[in-house]
Design a protein that fits this description.
Layout: H1 3-8, H2 11-17, H3 26-35, E1 37-41, E2 46-48, E3 56-70, E4 76-82, E5 87-89, E6 103-116, H4 117-126, H5 128-154, H6 157-166, E7 177-178, H7 183-190, H8 194-206, E8 210-212, E9 216-219, H9 222-233
Antiparallel strand pairs: 1-6, 2-6, 3-4, 3-5, 3-6, 7-9, 8-9
Helix pairs in contact: 4-5, 6-9, 7-8
């Protein structure tokens, strides 16, 4: 489904198909749709920044967003990437006046539906199933963040990079694929620097594990690259 098709799809249909909202009554979904705010954002922009009190829940209709944690030294770590159908929120949605610890950056042109805390809170209080499913989603996000932190704490840069390359879009098929991530993008996803990423990419290439150019990327020895990722886990 392309961008125009997604945006042409009535919000009620999206809510009915979404696992979090599908068990709501038709009347509750009507209320939810009536309170929704439709917004579009260009790539490179920000939905909200660390330190903002942002009391919204949102549904991604189109595009992609990065959940980014920044250090005081200016380094960035991508904690999660959000795509169509995914929900996320500002901390102030659950706890009033609570500032966001992370920045939400628009990675690809995005279309979203947003809900203010005061508009959706009555539905959460009235619908235990909705509150339960949202709680389960929060736990899932927490577990993912825990895995990212565990990787940073216990997995060397080489292992984190190998794992990222194995998960690189398009690598399920053989042959080269277009490079969709820059050195800075890779560094942000594994909590390192572009210099370290460049060094290990060259090392992997020299060892025959990958082929990489400015525009294309290919895994040439998946078994050995997977071994690097697995050994690094300990």
């Amino acid at each position: 489904m392309n961008y125009n098709q997604r945006m042409a799809t009535p919000l009620l249909d999206l809510l009915k198909q979404h696992p979090l909202f599908s068990n709501l009554s038709a009347a509750a979904r009507d209320r939810l749709a009536g309170a929704a705010i439709s917004r579009s954002y260009p790539a490179g922009g920000f939905l909200t920044c660390a330190g903002d009190c942002w009391p919204y829940l949102f549904l991604v209709v189109e595009g992609r967003l990065n959940v980014v944690k920044e250090s005081g030294e200016g380094r960035s770590l991508v904690i999660a990437e959000l795509g169509p159908g995914e929900l996320f929120w500002g901390l102030a949605f659950f706890q009033e006046e609570m500032p966001n610890p992370m920045t939400l950056q628009i990675n690809q042109p995005a279309a979203l539906y947003l809900w203010r805390r005061e508009d959706i809170l009555p539905l959460l209080l009235e619908n235990g199933r909705l509150a339960w499913e949202l709680s389960r989603l929060m736990v899932k996000r927490m577990l993912h963040a825990s895995e990212v932190i565990e990787g940073l704490a216990f997995q060397p840069v080489a292992g984190r990079l190998a794992r990222l390359l194995l998960e690189f879009p398009g690598q399920a098929a053989s042959g080269p694929t277009a490079r969709s991530l820059t050195l800075d993008d890779m560094a942000a996803r594994i909590g390192s620097t572009r210099e370290m990423v460049c060094r290990f990419l060259q090392r992997f290439s020299d060892s025959g594990l990958i082929k990489i150019t400015r525009t294309e990327f290919e895994i040439t020895d998946r078994e050995q690259l997977n071994s690097v990722a697995q050994k690094a886990k300990g």
